[in-house]
Amino acid sequence: MRLSTGCAIMLLCAAPSPTFAEETAKGSFELVWSDEFDTDGPPDPAKWSWDTHANKTGWYNNELQYYAADRPENARVEKGRLIITARKEALSDRADHGGQGYSSARLITKGKAEFTYGLIEVRAKLPCGKGSWPAIWTLGANAPWPDGGEIDIMEHVGKTPGDVFGTIHNRSTAGTFGNGSQIRVEDACDAFHDYQMLWTPREIRFAVDGKPYHRYANAGTGAAQWPFDAPQYLLLNLAVGGAMGGEVDDAIFPIRFEIEHVRVYRQQPRGATQPAE
Prior knowledge:
By secondary structure, this protein is mainly beta. Helices cover 5% and strands 40% of the residues.
């Protein structure tokens, strides 16, 4: 689903870029998709699918978790929050088990909700502890990685608590750590914060609670550098260990990644007015 009127936004290209706060000011965006997690039980199947495709072979980046499906011990909605829990356990009785010693969950909107441009905001509280690796991100819906692109709205590893990362990956960054930066959120593991990504035809910007910390511009050089004119789908997951998560401290388990809402907004054409309340 395309989330913007491209010609209207492109009119801004000749003018200086507005600040994040100016561009996301109240009244300039319309909510087009959300999950407020207001019904207890499993994640809403109309909005989310369980991603388990690499359980048997093992997940990427040398990660150590098994992603369980339909298991409330690993993902459930409770009291207005989605709770993704990683545990120290081997679910070896499952047919697709790949020998992992940890369980967790990975939820995706692929085939259910896919977006091109807009403002994505996820309000979450992150787990800490060595080996924890929660992420809020998107992947290209129409092309494999890296050609479809990847937008890491939020990554956090418990070995450096409070350091939050936003990163772009695509064909032009393949073989590197991507194009990104980080921001310090001292109480990321104790309090909820809004993790945000503003995506327009000219750039992608990352922010926490409205404070921007990284910008990735469309250089106009083609799909290798800018595959981001096509739909992306959302992912929420809690990985264990791996190339970024690092050494795991088993004493931390179970750990919880809590999400209060996921909201996707469409930018209104310039000059549009809100209906009277």
